[in-house]
Specification:
CATH class of chain A: Alpha Beta
Number of domains of chain B: 4
Number of strands of chain A: 6
CATH architecture of chain A: 2-Layer Sandwich
Number of strands of chain B: 18
Largest interface: A-B, 32 and 27 residues
CATH superfamily of chain A: Ribonuclease H-like superfamily/Ribonuclease H
Oligomer: heterodimer
CATH topology of the largest domain in chain B: Beta Polymerase, domain 2
Number of domains of chain A: 1
Helix content of chain B: 40-55%
Strand order of the largest sheet of chain A: 4-3-2-1-5-6
Largest sheet of chain A: 6 strands, mixed
Number of helices of chain B: 23
CATH topology of chain A: Nucleotidyltransferase, domain 5
Helix content of chain A: 25-40%
CATH architecture of the largest domain in chain B: 2-Layer Sandwich
Distance between the termini of chain B: 57 Å
Chain lengths: 223, 648
């Protein structure tokens, strides 16, 4: 046995990363209609708000395909992190989770699940930063998927694409406020999957609104 | 493992019957399978007469009206509120919707797959009874209260067993006209013809003073009995009418009426009050009416496709074609007929898609439509064997253009290809995992490049190029300029003529998959992976046959026959001493196609993997017999192409 065989198990382990990146290489054609697109609506609960220090406690997501929320695809994962849970964790009641998985297991589940779908979330930039921290050691500098932030999407639909963000009261675009405005019952707040489900319902309604404004294709959606 | 989202859905469902009868496990199973969609006020969710979807629905929020479209306007039959279950007739299987559903207030709709619920229906008698009671009472909405208690399950069962006349989309929905054009017997032929012309109908019924039908005169009669016979148009109609008339009463039911027309070769059937010709006339039914009511006949579907450029409509028609296919397969309609019908339907979809995209691109690329091109289908679609909507394999071939136009042209055809592929996706086809599609720049090329491709594959038959051969050599021109495709075929035969050894490589490739029976004459099943213990009917049985047929046809330099069983037919003609074997191979292929398509329709997948254990004894035997010609053909090829020598 020579020294380089030590590489072998590691390389095999990274096959799923390669598959994921390869799956994202082909861009989605701009003219693809929205009803043909695959979305993953996701949310994370974290130990705090500082991406540098804090880490993911739970990840929840559900897919939207053919303009329908696909409940069979709903997932909820609890990656184990080195950081001792702070106060946020106590609020979420996530102290004693039985189904905790290692970060590696989490990434192994996460990447094939996301595939080449369009990632959707409320204020998703933060979730992506947190996820980015976990996937970076696996050789993914940045998540390659297209992204839609339901916050920006709602602002764009209600104020037009040229809206000046600084002049819009952002309080009106929190997930709670948007849900109330769009008639979505607030349930299971502050669990990752619960928020993902609310965001998915909001997203369905926003897509309908977008359709009325003539947004029908991938290109028009991502602008 | 139930999670927050599934729990949330389950909690909502639990509040309403029949879900309230379910145990925790069943409830989770149902909740886990739900799809959620949102519709806005004014939209129509499903339409009367549309084929039932594999789901039934629970209204989560909003309001939906169930409306009957009648000739005298729409009638509201039911109003659904939160928690109401509707679209349940689908549970009985394969019946079209009797009512349309109109969204009155923005609605969130949960869809539950019928398949998931059917299992529960079998196991949970309370749930079954609940549904049965509703159906027996003719309910269209399953209400939240349980007032209609206990009715027999018998009726329920009878209903679900009946799909014998699936081919007629809705038996009760034959529209016939109650206003019949009539005239008294002493009317002149010319006056009768004038009446027909004014009313724009093809027949007139001759009635006596009591409105009893005495005879009928049709367009055809005017042609053959009046004009051709040189009879004066001044004469009374009674001299040339068909009499007595065959009559039925309208309550006889569609299939009965239709059979009468078939038996008596009638284009028009007169309906009277009591069904005899001694009672007043009440209506007339023409073969055109029958035609329209047979929603799933190929002619109607193709006609429907040709008349729409709406993608959603095309999708619906293609879905109906799937139902028709199932009916044909179950009723052992000849595979050649079925395959050509499905191919025609798929081809029309492609042609319409081309039309749509060409129109869209017109403004941006004004001069491009004059460049000749040819849309090619490959693989199974190219061989006219694609029954299910499996992967797309297609490409675009266009004529060589002057240097200065080259870039613009390639851009145009790539856009065209992309557009067509997107429409096909929306019509329910799947992407080709190997990206052999008209949206891939590699496969949208001018004739000279295509020639180079084939030359390369023929001159350097590497394993990869042999793989491509199996897809690309079965190309078929679907739309556009056929002569380009012919030119390419000619080129291919020239190249093969120059390098005969290519056929030996092809032969070697065709031997790669040995006959699928193991040492003990049992099926060779997949050893690992997600399809473990299943039999790969495509790779192990169909592919060897298509490969062998292609090889032998190429070696005979036969052009223009792509279909595997027609290739075997042709081979039987060319090699009389092997005719028996070839015709067996053709039949085997038909059996395999039928099995795969049925399997695919049942499981809503490609039908590629079959579990031998799930087959009946007869089917197993049939399948095993279908393998016999494979090994015999391989023996012949082995000797003919001297493969034992070649392998060294």
């Amino acid at each position: 046995m020579s020294w380089w065989e030590f590489w072998k198990p590691k390389k095999e382990r990274l096959d799923f990363v390669r598959d994921f990146l390869a799956g994202n290489e082909t861009p989605i054609p701009g003219i693809r209609s929205i009803s043909q697109l695959k979305f993953t609506v996701l949310d994370t609960e974290t130990t705090g708000l500082d991406p540098a220090k804090d880490s993911i406690l739970s990840f929840g997501a559900v897919k939207v395909e053919s303009m329908k929320i696909q409940v069979p695809t709903a997932v909820e994962w609890y990656p184990k992190s080195g950081i001792i849970p702070g106060k946020a964790a106590q609020i979420h009641g996530l102290i004693d989770i039985i189904d905790q998985i290692s970060e590696e297991e989490f990434v192994k589940l996460l990447l094939p699940y996301l595939g080449d779908s369009v990632l959707v979330g409320h204020h998703i930039g933060f979730d992506l930063e947190m996820i980015g921290k976990i996937v970076r050691p696996f050789g993914i500098a940045q998540m390659p998927n297209p992204v839609i932030d339901t916050l920006n999407f709602a602002v764009r639909l209600e104020h037009g694409p040229q809206a000046d963000l600084s002049r819009i009261p952002m309080g009106a675009y929190s997930l709670d406020e948007l849900c109330i405005r769009f008639g979505i019952e607030l349930e299971d707040r502050h669990t990752a999957a619960g928020d993902a489900f609310l965001t998915a319902q909001l997203f369905l309604k926003l897509l309908r609104l977008a359709e009325k404004k003539g947004i029908r294709t991938y290109k028009e959606l991502l602008r | 493992m139930a999670n927050v989202i599934v729990n949330r859905v389950a909690e909502f469902l639990r509040r309403f019957p029949p879900f309230s009868f379910l145990g925790k496990e069943d409830l989770t199973r149902v909740a886990q399978s739900v799809e959620i969609q949102y519709l806005e006020k004014g939209e129509i969710f499903f339409r009367q007469g549309e084929a039932a979807r594999p789901h039934f629905f629970i209204l989560k929020e909003g309001q939906i009206q169930l409306v009957e479209n009648a000739s005298d306007g729409d009638q509201i039959r039911e109003i659904c509120d939160e928690g109401d279950v509707f679209g349940v007739l689908a549970l009985l299987g394969k019946r079209p919707y009797l009512l349309s559903s109109k969204v009155i207030e923005n609605s969130l709709i949960y869809s539950v797959p019928v398949a998931v619920f059917e299992k529960i229906l079998e196991e949970n008698s309370r749930v079954a009874l609940f549904f049965a009671a509703g159906f027996a009472a003719g309910q269209v909405v399953v209400r939240q209260d349980l007032s209609q208690g206990q009715k027999a399950r018998g009726e329920f069962k009878n209903d679900s067993g009946d799909h014998s006349l699936l081919i007629f989309s809705d038996q009760s929905a034959v529209n016939f006209s109650e206003k019949v054009l009539t005239c008294p017997p002493d009317t002149s032929i010319q006056a009768a013809a004038l009446q027909m012309a004014e009313a724009q109908v093809s027949s007139i019924v001759i009635c006596d003073e009591k409105s009893f039908p005495a005879g009928i005169l049709t367009d055809k009669d005017l042609r053959s009995r009046v004009l051709a016979a040189g009879i004066s148009p001044e004469k009374p109609v009674s001299e040339v009418m068909t009499s007595p008339v065959i009559t039925r009463k309208k309550q006889d039911g569609f299939s009965n009426l239709y059979l009468t027309m078939i038996r008596h070769r009638l284009h028009h059937l007169v309906l009277t009050e009591d069904g005899s010709d001694q009672s007043p006339i009440g209506g007339i039914i023409s073969d055109h009416d029958v035609f329209l009511s047979m929603g799933n006949s190929p002619a109607v579907l193709i006609h429907g496709l040709m008349n729409t450029l709406e993608i959603a409509e095309m999708r619906k028609i293609r879905d109906r074609a799937g139902q028709m296919l199932e009916y044909y397969l179950e009723n052992e309609v000849s595979m050649e007929f079925v395959a050509s019908i499905m191919t025609e339907i798929n081809d029309v979809i492609i042609r319409q898609a081309l039309k749509i995209v060409t129109n869209q691109l017109e403004t941006d690329y004004p001069n491009m439509s004059s460049i000749r091109f040819c849309f090619l289908s490959m693989g199974s679609e190219g061989r006219e064997e694609q029954l299910l909507r499996t992967d797309l394999d297609n490409a675009i071939l266009y004529e060589d253009v002057p240097e200065d136009l080259r870039e613009k042209t390639s851009e145009y055809f790539l856009k065209l290809g992309e557009g067509v592929v997107e429409i096909l996706l929306a019509c329910g086809f799947d992407l080709c995992p190997g990206k052999i599609m008209a949206s891939n720049p590699e496969w949208v090329q001018p004739l000279s490049t295509w020639k180079d491709y084939f030359t390369e594959w023929i001159l350097h038959p590497s394993p990869e190029s042999l793989l491509k051969v199996s897809i690309f050599f079965d190309f078929r021109s679907v739309a556009g300029s056929k002569s380009l495709a012919t030119e390419l075929s000619d080129h291919i035969y020239q190249e093969i003529g120059k390098k005969q050894v290519f056929l030996n490589f092809l032969a070697l490739n065709a031997m790669k998959n040995p006959p699928p029976l193991g040492f003990f004459k049992d099926f060779v099943v997949e050893k690992s992976g997600e399809n473990q213990d299943q039999f790969d009917i495509k790779l192990r049985a169909m592919l060897p046959l298509t490969d062998l047929a292609r090889l032998l046809v190429l070696s005979h330099q036969v052009v223009g026959i792509n279909n595997t069983f027609r290739r075997f037919e042709k081979l039987a003609e060319l090699e009389p001493n092997n005719a028996e074997l070839f015709s067996q191979a053709g039949k085997a292929y038909e059996i395999l196609m039928r099995m795969r398509a049925l399997e695919g329709l049942q499981n809503k997948n490609s039908g590629r993997y079959i579990n031998p254990k799930s087959l009946g004894k007869l089917q197993r035997q049939l399948l095993k017999n279908a393998f016999v010609p494979i090994s015999e053909l391989q023996d012949i090829v082995n000797i003919r192409f001297q493969l034992d020598y070649f392998r060294r």
